[in-house]
Amino acid sequence: MANLAKPQLHVAVGVIIRQQQVLLALRHAKQHQGDKWEFPGGKLEQGEAAENALKRELREELAISVTACQPLMQLAYDYPERSVLLDIWLVSAFEGEPHGVEGQPVQWVDIASLHQLTFPDANQPIVARLQQQFCGLA
Ligand SMILES: Nc1nc2c([nH]c(=O)n2[C@H]2C[C@H](O)[C@@H](COP(=O)(O)OP(=O)(O)OP(=O)(O)O)O2)c(=O)[nH]1
Ligand SMILES: [Mg+2]
After folding, report:
1. Is 14 close to ligand 1, i.e. is its CB under 6 Å away?
2. In the CATH hierarchy, which fold is given to the domain comprising 8-135?
3. Which ligand has an atom closest to residue 39 CA?
4. Contacts 24+ apart (CB under 8 A), 52-61
């Protein structure tokens, strides 16, 4: 049965690509889906466009300025405690060198190796799409 009280979060997510690698950040243990590797991003503010939220979050979390991005896919996923709508963007150009502004570990990972890491449960289709699109993997 649908849980009508369950919050529904609209989240802007950046797949930041440089030379066949993607930048990942480790979610804090205390966060929802903690201790898993995420594509950096965060919740849209009231009335905010997804692209703006993406740019704001990547500035806040990584101290980079996005200069080129394209929508990749949208993904709805029901966690037991919340639903999310992930608005996923490819970030193909940016200014600044990304680092974890909030102390979160970050790493560049080969797209071909992405499936070896632990992501939030919603993320599997993103990893599959990236490997398909950039590595020709089925
Ligand atoms: N950033 C990000 N969030 C993801 C991914 N996959 C996934 O299921 N999520 C979920 C986890 C959270 O429920 C939600 C993001 O919410 P959040 O609370 O971390 O967002 P935020 O950055 O605005 O955090 P905060 O300022 O409220 O601390 O989206 C992903 O790859 N990246
Ligand atoms: Mg975030």
Report:
1. no
2. Nucleoside Triphosphate Pyrophosphohydrolase (3.90.79)
3. 1
4. 53/12, 53/87, 54/12, 54/13, 54/14, 54/87, 54/89, 54/91, 57/12, 57/14, 58/14, 58/16, 58/91, 58/94, 58/98, 60/101, 61/25, 61/100, 61/101, 61/102, 61/104
